Predict the structure.
Amino acid sequence: MVMGGATCRVLVIDDDDNIRTLVKLMCDHQGIEVMQAPDGEVGLSVAVAHRPTIILLDVNMPNRQGMDVYLDLRNHSSTADIPVMILSAALTQRDVQMWQGLPNVVGVMTKPFDMYTLVARINDILATRTTLLA
């Protein structure tokens, strides 16, 4: 997918290989470039180096939790404005509400989720970004 002359890039930061692979396969069919990171440290490096259009962020990961990664993204000048969608298997309703109230968090999806719904949500966010950047 091309947005205002630039390719849309999704960064998936998730320690689950299956989630990363499925998101990549589904997005590839939509023409959306997918970058993958198996943990928060790698994810931060990729985000800073490649400025994705949107970040899909798992909450519970080894080494760095999703909240730590989110805060680092928000505090880095080159990633502070990138929309983040939260993905997690272990969220309470209170957790969902907390995440939804944070700046640049554009959605929360609990695992397991329907991959078609996720890709539709990504496309909606990308379309909104295209409109805002036009």
Remarks:
- The chain has one domain: 2-133.
- The first helix runs from residue 17 to 28.
